[in-house]
Amino acid sequence: MPAPKKKALPLLAVAISMPLLAACQPQGPVVVDAPNDNCAVHRAIFRQTESSFNEVAQGVALSAAGGVAAGLLVGALTGNSRAGLVTGLSVAAVGITATLVNANFRQLDQEARRQALLQQTVAVDKYGERVTGATQSLERLSDCRRGQVAAIRADLRSGATPRPVAEARLNEVRSWYEGDTMLVGAFDQRLANDTRQLEESTRYVDATVYEQERSFRPYSAILARGGPAYVAPDAGSGQAGQLSVGQTVQVTAQSGGWLQISMGRGRSGYVRSTYLARSTGSRAYVGGSEQSLRAEATDSAAEVGRVANGSPYRVVGTMPGWLVVDQGPSKSFVRATALRPAQVDNSGREVVSSAATAVAARDAFSQGATGLASEARRLSLDG
Q1: Where does the secretion signal sit in this chain (predicted)?
Q2: Rounded Cα–Cα distance for residues 60 and 54 (Å)
C-alpha cells in the first residue's frame, strides 16, 4: 500500500507549511462587549490586527516561511528530504539575502540612502503612532475600570447596594477585566513581534547608536498634554502640582511608563510618558498630508488647524507618533506621518534615535498591560 501513502505526502506538506505561512498573518482573540459596559469603547484599538512593522523585516519573515514551505513541498513530492532541505534553504536564503542587501545602510549610495532613511522614518512614525495610541487607550481603559470598581465599593459602603448584589456586579466587572486582559495581551504580543523586526531594520542603519540611544539619559521635554504631576509613579499617590501644555521641563529618571521631572525649587514629580515630547531644537519640516493640528498630542484634543501640503513647519519636539509644531506664542501637535523633514539626516542618527524612543514607549505599554492583569487579579470589594 505504498502508493496511497506517497500521494498523501504533498497534502501533508501543505498541511505543515500552511500554519507557518499563517503565522505571518496577525491573529486576535474574540471578545464580545457587554451592552452595559461603558468602558468597552476604549477597547477598540486593541482589536486592530494590522501589523506596523517595516516592510524590510516583513520580507525576511515571509521569505523564511516561504522557503520552509517550499522545501517541505519539494521533499514530499520527490520523496527526497535532502532535496527538499536544499530547496527550502535556497528559497529562504535568496529572499533574505536580497532583502538584507537592499536594507544594508552602509552599501547604499547617497540618494538610495536618503530614500531608505525616509522609508524607515515612515515605518518608525507609524509604529510610534500605534504604540502611543494604544498606550493612551490603555490609560483610559484602566482609569475607567477603576472608576467602575470604585462606584461599586461606594454603593456598598453607603448601603445603597446589598453585599450579594455588589459581589455580582464586581464579578461582572471581573469578567470584563478578563476580556481586557485577553485583548491587550494579544495586542502587546503583536507589538512585540513588530518591535523585534523594527529593531532589526534599525540596527542595519547603526547598531551602535541604537544601543546607545536605548539607555536612559536626562533630557529636556515639552508637555504634550496638560494635567497633574504626581508625587510617585502612580496616579493614586497624590498630586505634586499642575502642568500646562507646551511647558518645558527636565526629565531626570524613568520608572516604567512614568517619567520623573524636575519642577523647580528642588521639587520633582512624575508624569506618564505619553504626556511628554523630547525637545529637539528647531527643525524644518514640510507638510506631507492634510491632517489635524491639535491642542494636545491626542486624537481627542481640539483641532487648532490643518496641515497644508508643501507648507513649511518648525518642529521643536518629538514623541512616538507625534511632532510638536512651534506656532509662535503657542505649540500645536500633529501626527508624525503628516509632516516630512525638509532635509534628511544622512547619518541615520535621527531615525535611529526615534526608533529607540518608540521601542521604549512600547516597553512602557507592555508594563501597563501587565499592570492591568495584576489589577484584575486583586479585585475585591474591600480593596
Answers
A1: 1-22
A2: 10
SS3 38: coil
**Cell (9 digits) for 232:** 510617585
pLDDT higher than 90, residue 324: yes
Bridge partners of residue 230, in order along the sequence: 239, 270
Average pLDDT, integer, range 267-292: 93
In the block, which residue shows the cell 498634554? 225
Q: Taking Cα atoms as reference points, which of 344, 284, 294, 286 lies closest to residue 315? A: 284
Q: Are 249 and 263 in contact (CB under 8 A)?
A: yes
Cell of 251: 526629565
Between 119 and 71, whose confidence is greater?
119
- Mean pLDDT score, 253-271: 90
Q: How is the chain split into domains, by residue range?
A: 2-215
In DSSP terms, 220 is beta-bridged to 250
State how far the alpha carbon of 316 is from the alpha carbons of 121, 148, 275, 348, 357, in Å: 17, 39, 15, 19, 16
- CA neighbours closer than 13 Å in the CB half-sphere of residue 196: 8
Give pLDDT, residue 262.
Answer: 93
Cα 293 to Cα 323: distance, rounded to the nearest angstrom = 10
Residue 266 in grid coordinates: 528642588
DSSP per position, 193-232:
HHHHHHHHHHHHHHHHHHHHHHS---EEEEESS-EEEESS
Q: What is the 3-state secondary structure (H, E, C) of 238-256?
A: CEEEEECCCCEEEEEEEEC
Q: What is the largest CA-CA distance in the chain?
A: 88
3-class DSSP assignment, residue 128: helix
pLDDT at 17: 41
Cell of 94: 535568496
Cell of 10: 504533498
The C-alpha R_g of the chain, in whole angstroms, comes to: 25
Give the pLDDT score at 20.
42
